Amino acid sequence: xxxxxxxxxxxxxxxxxxxxxxxxxxxxxxxxxxxxxxxxxxxxxxxxxxxxxxxxxxxxxxxxxxxxxxxxxxxxxxxxxxxxxxxxxxxxxxxxxxxxxxxxxxxxxxxxxxxxxxxxxxxxxxxxxxxxxxxxxxxxxxxxxxxxxxxxxxxxxxxxxxxxxxxxxxxxxxxxxxxxxxxxxxxxxxxxxxxxxxxxxxxxxxxxxxxxxxxxxxxxxxxxxxxxxxxxxxxxx
Length: 237
Known about the structure:
This protein has about 240 residues and is of the alpha+beta class. The chain folds into 2 domains: about 5-90, Elongation Factor Tu (Ef-tu), domain 3 (Beta Barrel); about 95-235, Threonyl-trna Synthetase, Chain A, domain 2 (Threonyl-tRNA Synthetase, Chain A, domain 2, 2-Layer Sandwich), CATH 3.30.980. About 15% of the residues lie in helices and about 35% in strands. The chain contains 3 helices and 15 strands. The chain has helices at about 95-115, 140-150, 165-170, and strands at about 5, 15-25, 30, 30-35, 45-50, 55-65, 70-75, 85-90, 120-125, 130, 160-165, 190-195, 200, 215-225, 230-235. A 6-stranded antiparallel barrel has the order 2-3-7-6-5-8. Strand 9 (about 120-125) and strand 10 (about 130) form a beta hairpin. The chain is globular and about 55 Å long. The chain starts with a strand and ends with a strand. This is Alanine--tRNA ligase.
């Protein structure tokens, strides 16, 4: 059974109801979820599954099981076994998720300041980074920080856009990330659009307006191999 991904339509949902489909050795599968699973460089959500009697099951991580086409919620050690068919209240760790949303959207902005192919990336609650295939001498931390913050200050809304697989194949320039290719096969691909700034495939969670990111800081720039120059950022607050 395919898990309904509620966060794709509304990344700001902090709670929702869901029903237990299966309890695997690896995790709990629900019919629907607001928990984002590890993917596209963004770490999986944490939070709680709340039973009808008020008992709170801590979710330590969320992962995608591609074989099952399902999202698995990984409970903390020693958690109570849930029953198939049980209806739960889902609660994500919202402060953590919101930081991930802000940083993920900030990386989109930064990818438009550093004009180079993206070879990798990672988003954690405290910091995020992109790796670029670019000459190290072309990366200046102060310039990157200043230009990213200038774009953020424009306060532009973000928008989800869907195109077909064929449309994406006809526009290969939309795919900036060399390490992660957008999923094909379902007939359509999800894009993040920031008017006048960015348009690229992405299945992650983002803020509604880039002004919500706030200022960012460039923490460091370092060489990570022949084709990887890593730019690491954090939220200024």
